[in-house]
Amino acid sequence: MDAFDIFLRQVLGGIATGSIYGSLALALVMIYQSTQKINFAQGEMAMFSTYIAWWLIAAGLPYWLAALATVAIALAIGALVELLVIRRISGGPPLSVIAVFIGLLLIFHSLAGAIFGNALQQFPSPFKGEIAGLSRMISVHSLGMLGVNLAVLLVLFLFFRYTRLGLAMRAAAFNPASSQLSGIPVPLMFTLGWGGASAVGAVAGMMVAPITYLDPDMMGGVLIYSFAGALLGGLTSPGGAMVGGIVVGILENILGAYVIGTELKLPAALVLIILVLLVWPSGVFGRRIVSRV
């Protein structure tokens, strides 16, 4: 394999991995649009949902049936978190909200270890076999998870663009007061938004688990990369979040292979976060919010 083939392999692998970051970044954006807050527990919620999928598969359910059940359970978990916790602290001091998010992170992390154990577990991939001419450049699982994550993005785009419920959720996130006056049940829209974000995170967790193995710490680094992707694409742009995640995935692979090595890839993501906040805080595709005073 010559130098160009190695470079192309790094790029294709970065695109596939970046689609995972983009999916979790999309979940972060969905929460941010409704609450103007970053859910630091998003990765741990995705990890916990992935453990549920692992348990269902171990119990004998076919992979895709277990995946669908997990998405439904994750949606219910996200909705319950918003209904029982987030709604009660909305409008509170920012530091209190951040403390609650960190508390949720620790709760889901501890629950996963207490219920499922802390040992590394293998998570099955639904994508197996080889594709002639492509397998030496990108694995079948990487290609499959790229397709799944792009399909999730397409479904969400169609949902928010062409359905009444999706339009109502967008309106509630953009202008809650006006939406309430128009008859939209804004609290319900926020609950559904949290549920949807949790479901998207569950998909990301199930796609990344066959690569990283399953354990309570599996989503820690993924969340940082996803946060960098969300900031780069713009916290107000769902499509930008996916693009930002893919760009971060490509940069991670290229920099790790040719510039900084594997050990410094995570610090590089933190540097990217700082640079974006300093230079382009609204992100590439995000809208700049101007308040009149």
Automatic annotation (TrEMBL):
CDD domains named among the record's database cross-references: TM_PBP1_LivH_like
Pfam hit, one: BPD_transp_2
Superkingdom classification of source: Bacteria
An individual GO BP term: amino acid transport
The UniProt record lists the keyword Endoplasmic reticulum: no
Record field: transmembrane: 6-31, 38-57, 63-85, 97-120, 140-160, 188-212, 218-235, 242-260, 266-286
Any one annotated GO CC term: plasma membrane
Signal peptide segment: none
Location (main, coarse): membrane
The UniProt record lists the keyword rRNA-binding: no
Location of this chain's protein in the cell: Cell membrane
Keyword tags: Amino-acid transport, Cell membrane, Membrane, Transmembrane, Transmembrane helix, Transport
Membrane topology: Multi-pass membrane protein
GO MF, any single term: transmembrane transporter activity
Family: Belongs to the binding-protein-dependent transport system permease family. LivHM subfamily.
Stated name of the protein: Branched-chain amino acid ABC transporter permease
Organism: Caenimonas aquaedulcis
Organism placement in taxonomy: Bacteria, Pseudomonadati, Pseudomonadota, Betaproteobacteria, Burkholderiales
